[in-house]
Amino acid sequence: MDIITDPRALQDWALRWRAQGETLCLVPTMGYFHAGHAALMKEGRKQAKKLLVSRFVNPTQFGPSEDLQAYPSDESRDVSIARDCGVDVLFMPKAEDMYRRRHATWVHVPEMGKRLCGTTRPHHFQGVCTVVSKLFILALPNVAVFGEKDWQQLAILRRMVLDLNFPIDLVGVPTVREPDGLALSSRNAYLAEAERKEAPHLHKGLLLAGRLHDEGENRAEAICGAVREYWKETMPNSRVDYLEIVHPESLEPVERLGGTPALAMAAVQVGAKARLIDNKMIAPRADEL
Prior knowledge:
- The protein is α/β, with parallel strands linked by helices.
- The chain folds into 2 domains: 2-173, Rossmann fold, CATH 3.40.50.620; 186-279, Pantoate-beta-alanine ligase, C-terminal domain (Pantoate--beta-alanine Ligase, Chain: A,domain 2).
- Helix content is 39%, strand content 19%.
- The protein is built from 11 helices and 9 strands.
- It has a 6-stranded parallel β-sheet with strand order 1-4-3-2-5-6, sandwiched between helices. It has a 3-stranded antiparallel β-sheet with strand order 7-8-9, covered by helices on one side.
- The radius of gyration is 19 Å and the shape is globular.
- The N and C termini lie far apart (49 Å).
């Protein structure tokens, strides 16, 4: 496995391989690898001849009061995991090499980025779209792999790729979970012992939303109300940022479920440091088809 830190060197590497007709898969990450990242890399290994993983804590997707400086990091472990997953190149640039002084060009999908996580993180998806666009231009991948836990991010990037005519296929990988259902996340490291015991109820609440629909409830408001009551009882030290049922592609709110899949999406602040997100696809019942 090669490690590249200079963006121009990465571009030269990618151009050489593309000129030889090789296919290339990109897996963008912010590091602190866990089994979820490994699943993305293993999927990427299947998608193309060459596998590139970026490890870059992107400063432009963090707000002024967010955890940029405290974001967990373990470079040596990340290098080891990437090597074990068969990565060809691990790209680890510095922020000043990705964003020159007085950087003034941004990419965003404003309508899809202003709701859900965008309500409390207004510049987050602008930072995501900009850095992913830069990675696409540097690496020229045929395919890029992202986790479905960050569903809003994936939906926005799919729209960006469509609108800007990037010749890249985006592949989503199902969320990897702990045995108790908690979605794997680098931010789980922030959870204190008592908070860790509460955290799995985020997923269990979304499972409740699916069961309520399966039992005949179609009103999104009623389903969300029941889930919030469940969380009030099971996560007393947490605060719900949002809970919505939306169309999986457009992310527009759904008032009544029926006929097509819907997505329950939530973000919850668990304790002082950990903001956790999760989602659950709700399939139509047989009587709705």
